[in-house]
Amino acid sequence: MRKISLPKGHIILISLLSIALGFSLAANIYKGGTMAPQPLTAASPKQATVGWESGFADIADLMAPSVVTITSEKTVTTRSSNPFEDFFGFDPFGRGRGGTQSRVQQATGSGVIVRSDGYIITNNHVVDGADKVTVRLNDGRELEGTAVVDPRTDLALVKIDADNLTAAGFADSDKLRVGEWAIAIGTPFQLKNTVTVGVISAIRTDSPIATENTYMQEYIQTDASINPGNSGGPLVNVHGQIIGINFMIYSKSGGNMGIGFAIPSNTVKYVMNELIKNGKVTRGYLGLVPADLDEDTKSTLGVSSGVLVESIEKGTPAYKAGIRVKDVIVKIGDEEIKTSNDLRNVVQRTAPGTKVDVEVVRNGEKLKFNVEMGEMGSDTVSVGGESESTDNDTGMVVSDIPESMRERLGLEDDMSGVLVREVQDGSPAGRAGIRSGYVITEIGSTPVRNVTDYKKALRGAKKGSTYLVTVFAQGRTFVRTMKL
Q1: Which residue range(s) make up the domain with 184?
Q2: Closest C-alpha to 364, from 306, 312, 294
Q3: CATH code assigned at 308
Q4: C-alpha–C-alpha distance, residues 388 and 425, integer Å
Q5: Could you give the residue numbers annotated as active site?
Q6: pLDDT in tens, 342-352
Q7: In 184-258, where does DSSP find H-type helix?
Q8: Tens-place pLDDT, residues 381-390
Q9: DSSP class of residue 66?
């Protein structure tokens, strides 16, 4: 093999040209190939560009005009203590029980503008029961707002009198993947427009509060730092689109521990549209409790997928149509049902009054039932032989008192009332100290003997109204003050 000898100067020149060519090729590949950072389109006319040097700064700039601080105020009344009365049961000086005192309770949270004409999404627990809601925009303006809430999803819609606002857009939360970037923006500890970055840690479908009577069956888990004050603020992707609304953290200290949760954007959009259109969220209702199937149960029942009907209430839409316990629901309308979450999503997003075909497997045989969807939270529904009422204004579910429970409740023969079955956290009833298991015997000056009396006593109730509720529990009668 021949060897070619080159002068030393030529070798140096060729080496320098090779290095220069290498840099040129690398620059072109980086600029035009898959490694190049691309412009990211957001919902507003502006665009965000994520670069290695700027990091997430462009996303922060893009979202800043859309993220707001929300302050809510409400007046709470407490009874001042009389130490003699509390200790002895009477006051030897004859001064009687302590009086009442009022104070203004203030809460601060975050929100995000979702329509340019003044609609803002936040959490229900940020504004629930507020006498006054104030929105502070990024430009420094402070405007008073009005709120409509949906306690089942812990979402609220605030309307302010403003136009030409910068609204954020939504991503499709059904397409999220674990490991994607997640950026939380809000006002933790009243520190406006704080930006923290993490990833989507998990998509949770195993929430302990996920029943047919709750709407949030999925949560986005993230390690982006979320702290008190972040509630109601957006969790966004690298395109500056909302993927969720921050609402809860897991903490043993009260601060961030790297586990935060957001309500998925698709749920947010559904609730937002319902609140704008109707002022409330209407949801379908079947009246059954679903259960996921493990492999052994599938084999026993002879099915490959579906959801087991674990229990069903008499008189409900599902029961009236012929669906029974141990049926396996495999399809509703055109939607295949593989998990309990599938069933809840389909049912609750179906308008009340809609007739749908529900396909089940019973004893190895496929059956089809035509069900007229009920409305979750409607005034009354038959439960066995007793009447039950769900009151969205008070946050209570009450029922007539079953005879089988009278002795356990400690009721005398001449006592009547309604049994409190459920109380929503943060609701007027919950704030008043009313608990499940209490028996309501009187509202205001109206005796309550049954659910009919209960509804009559609250008929025409308006937000801001105050009621003295007489309750019986643990062998004694006492009064709670409930403000709607």
Answers
A1: 173-278
A2: 306
A3: 2.30.42.10
A4: 19
A5: 125, 154, 231
A6: 888 888 888 88
A7: none
A8: 222 233 445 5
A9: G
